[in-house]
Amino acid sequence: MERFADRVDAGRRLAQRLKNLRGQDVVVLGLPRGGVPVAFEVADILQAPLDVLVVRKLGVPFQPELAFGAIGEDGVRVLNEEIVRAAHLDEEDMDAVERQQQIELRRRAERFRSGRDRISLTGRTAVIVDDGIATGATARAACQVARAHGASRVVLAVPIGPDDIAERFAGYADEVVCLQAPTYFHAVGQGYRNFTQTSDDEVVALLDRARNDIAEADGDNAAADPPVRDEEIQVVAGPVSVAGHLTIPEKPRGIVVFAHGSGSSRHSPRNRYVAEVLNAAGFATLLFDLLTPDEERNRANVFDIELLASRLVAITGWLATQPDTASLPIGYFGASTGAGAALVAAADPRVTVGAVVSRGGRPDLAGRALAKVVTPTLLIVGGHDSMVLELNRQAQALIPGQCELAVVPGATHLFEEPGTLEQVAELAREWFIHHLCQAVANK
Question: How far is CA 106 from CA 71, 72, 110, 140, in A?
Answer without folding.
Answer: 11, 9, 6, 20
